[in-house]
Inverse folding.
């Protein structure tokens, strides 16, 4: 088929901006054919673009050119059209567009691997294999718009609070979170790694920029195949000088609340598409200590030995007791990373915290160790190689201020905001133990 060229056509509006009030006006629309229905010679084309859909009605007596173009259309062809808006009671939105001219800009395969209207649901593996097409489903567009608005809200909030956005290396020479779960990279013949987090760099940056944040992908060679772990995930990290865990927890709950308010306000249509409700959480969030968590669990018949991490099954029980956001504080020092500051009054507990949503950990943070000797002790206790941390330790000779920070897992936050149960649903192109493509 000979394709049309876009020429000087410019979109006048998106599908959703076409309203009955525009009756009689001419519009230029671009998008994709979502569905075609023939009814006694009248042809209805549902045109989809990023913002939604609009009914395009081709009457029997349309001009020959329009009739032959509309005859040739199939699902997922990308098209442009100039047409007249018509108020009607015959379409769900009370409006349709009658085309004067149609351009076929690209074609598509006759057999598509999934039904993007979602009427015939496909398994997630099938959808992920055809992800570019799968992402055209209204549900997916809605989920990623919600993620976009949440991240925009978080960024704006942090800018207002005086945080500067920074960029740290993804190719690194030594582990930041301990030795496990690292991907290795051949770096000009030398062994390097993909960064698990910006931890060490963001800590060093508080010496100069004081309040920093970074949004970007990080990498964990996760062996476990769960619905909340990816090998590559997006982290929203902050680090703040002259602050402790208490202060950054207050900032965090405000950030989360602001993201929820924004999504609720700006994404009403997307939430309706997903049939999901976002409740704006009240601040302050509940604060539970690790000991309180263990005692709550014990009352529910779940024993977690003191000092150990809380297993997933126990978190599920906890999530039923606390079905919203809550912090867990005062973790055993040894259960947290080497850079988390032990409590001054009780060194076996630390100033690390997690922010949970129901049973899922969404954020982890804490006061960091700012004293070099203590950091060296903690590295030794964790059995880490001091030499590998040479440059990081050096920074502590140059005036490291007290500091604290946190990291939000963006996909996990998006799960909460969209009601999706599998992290792969809210990741454009998920990477896990068994998936490296597309
Ligand atoms: P978990 O115990 O759930 O594996 P973690 O304690 O290893 O998480 P942190 O290293 O504290 O996670 O990372 C901070 C945040 O980054 C987590 O709270 C989570 O939201 C997100 N995150 C960490 N690892 C992953 C992953 N593999 N996939 C998706 N998100 C992750």
């Amino acid at each position: 088929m000979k394709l049309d060229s876009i020429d000087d056509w410019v979109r006048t509006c998106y599908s959703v901006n076409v309203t009955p009030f525009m009756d009689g006006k001419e519009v230029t629309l671009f998008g994709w054919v979502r569905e075609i229905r023939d009814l006694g010679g009248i042809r209805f084309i549902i045109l989809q673009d990023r913002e939604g859909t609009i009914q395009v009605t081709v009457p029997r007596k349309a001009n020959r050119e329009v009739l032959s173009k509309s005859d040739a259309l199939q699902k997922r062809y990308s098209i442009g059209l100039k047409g007249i808006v018509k108020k009607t009671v015959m379409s769900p939105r009370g409006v349709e567009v009658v085309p004067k001219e149609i351009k076929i800009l690209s074609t598509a395969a006759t057999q598509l691997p999934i039904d993007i209207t979602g009427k015939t649901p496909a398994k997630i593996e099938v959808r992920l294999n055809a992800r570019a097409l799968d992402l055209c489903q209204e549900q997916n567009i809605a989920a990623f718009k919600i993620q976009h608005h949440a991240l925009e809200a978080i960024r704006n909030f942090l800018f207002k609070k005086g945080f500067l956005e920074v960029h740290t290396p993804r190719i690194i020479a030594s582990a930041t979170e301990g030795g496990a779960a690292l991907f290795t990279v051949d770096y000009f013949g030398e062994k390097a790694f993909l960064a698990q987090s910006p931890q060490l760099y963001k800590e060093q940056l508080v010496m100069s920029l004081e309040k920093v944040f970074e949004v970007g992908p990080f990498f964990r060679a996760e062996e476990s195949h769960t619905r909340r772990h990816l090998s590559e995930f997006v982290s929203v990290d902050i680090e703040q000088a002259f602050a402790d865990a208490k202060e950054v927890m207050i900032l965090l709950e405000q950030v989360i609340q602001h993201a929820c308010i924004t999504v609720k306000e700006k994404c009403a249509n997307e939430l309706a598409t997903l049939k999901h409700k976002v409740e704006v959480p009240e601040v302050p969030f509940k604060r539970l200590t690790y000991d309180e968590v263990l005692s709550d669990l014990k009352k529910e018949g779940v024993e977690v030995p003191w000092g150990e991490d809380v297993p997933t099954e126990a978190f599920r029980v906890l999530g039923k007791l606390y079905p919203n956001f809550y912090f867990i504080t005062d973790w055993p020092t040894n259960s947290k990373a080497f850079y988390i500051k032990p409590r001054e009054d009780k060194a076996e507990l630390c100033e690390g915290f997690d922010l949970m949503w129901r049973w899922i950990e969404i954020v982890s943070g804490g006061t960091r160790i700012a004293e070099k000797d203590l950091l060296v002790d903690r590295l030794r206790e964790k059995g880490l190689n001091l030499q590998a941390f040479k440059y990081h330790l050096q920074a502590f000779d140059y005036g490291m201020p007290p500091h604290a920070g946190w990291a939000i897992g963006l996909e996990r936050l998006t799960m909460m905001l969209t009601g999706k149960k599998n992290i792969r649903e809210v990741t454009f192109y998920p990477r896990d133990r068994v998936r490296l493509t597309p």
User: Anything to note?
Assistant: The pocket of adenosine-5'-triphosphate is lined by residues 177, 220, 222, 229-230, 233, 235, 361-364, 407, 409, 411-412 (CB under 6 Å). Residues 15-106 form a domain with the OB fold (Dihydrolipoamide Acetyltransferase, E2P) fold (CATH 2.40.50.140). The radius of gyration is 27 Å.
